[in-house]
Amino acid sequence: MNAKLLLIILDGVPYRNFRRLFGNLEGWVLSGEARVWTHRSVVPSISASCYASIHTGVAPAEHGSTGNSNVFRLTHPDIFSATRAAGGITGAVAHSFWSEFFNRHPFDLVRDIEYDEPESTTINHGRFHTMTGYGLINQMTPSDVDLFATLTRLCERFGLHYGLLHTCTLDSMGHRFHHDCQEMDDACFKMDEMIAHFIPRWRAAGYEIIVTGDHGQDARGHHGGRDPLQQETALYYFGPAEGPDPETVIDQLRLAPTILGRLGAEVPKTMKAKSFLK
To answer: Pairing mode, if any, of strands 90-95 and 208-212?
Structure first.
């Protein structure tokens, strides 16, 4: 496997916040270095359900994770397992739900918070956090620049072919402050500035990059239903592939087959949606 791709998931960022507040990402779109589309999540548009659908390419009604209280080791083929089957090296810097979905359940704080398992059939190199104690008063989220640096370290140390990064910071900020406020504007501004420091380094290392959200959030900081503010986020792509018309809405179930197609891995038969990149 020669191709390499990073999927960066900024949890809970509605489309309008991406397009209005992420000046660096939008600057790359204007320069032609990136392209952007609307990305519509599955329903329920709740975090765990979206994580599972993004990586398995099937709807929550099929994979069975119907919400954040229903997390277990998934049985459907996924991006990690298909990449490994094709000989690729995988890594993830993310919330512990990802380890439980795609490596082992339940999550053991000591065993699973950091692991390097070259023979794993799913995630080879994992760095996870739990957000234990999370609430509106204390978000319990790591610094995003630390997460970006950790992913970069895994890429450079282990030669990842596929790497996932997931951060809950903006989702947590949205739940606490909602979206029409200085706090949210500032949080998005800081995230945009942090990720912009790493994108040129990832591109120079040969990675295609997708930056997106798992779902959106409405004006009251809620998601889970079918409201466009809750479902719709943006999807930015850095790479050489051809994509659809800019007005195309990308269904979330298309991400898994698209990523595997770019990596040159076989797409499992359970992933019935079509790739949106060629």
So the answer is: unpaired
- pLDDT of res. 17: 97
Contacts of 144 (CB under 8 A, 6+ apart): 167, 169, 190, 191, 194, 195
Average pLDDT over residues 247-266: 98
Name residue, tokens 């930056």.
211
Helix intervals (H) in the chain: 15-21, 23-31, 47-56, 60-63, 79-85, 96-102, 109-112, 144-158, 169-177, 182-204, 228-231, 255-263
d(CA 273, CA 19): 26
Please report, as a single letter, which amino acid is at residue 78.
D
Name the DSSP letter for residue 97. Answer: H
pLDDT score at 159 = 98
pLDDT at position 96: 98
What are the residue ranges spanned by the domains of the chain? 5-263
Chain CA centroid to CA 37, Å: 15
Mean pLDDT of the 123-130 span: 98
Name the CATH topology of 5-263: Alkaline Phosphatase, subunit A (3.40.720)
The residues, ordered by sequence, that sit 6+ positions from 64 with a Cβ below 8 Å of its Cβ are 70, 72, 74
pLDDT > 70: percent of the chain: 100
* Helix, strand and coil in the chain, % to nearest 5: 40, 15, 45
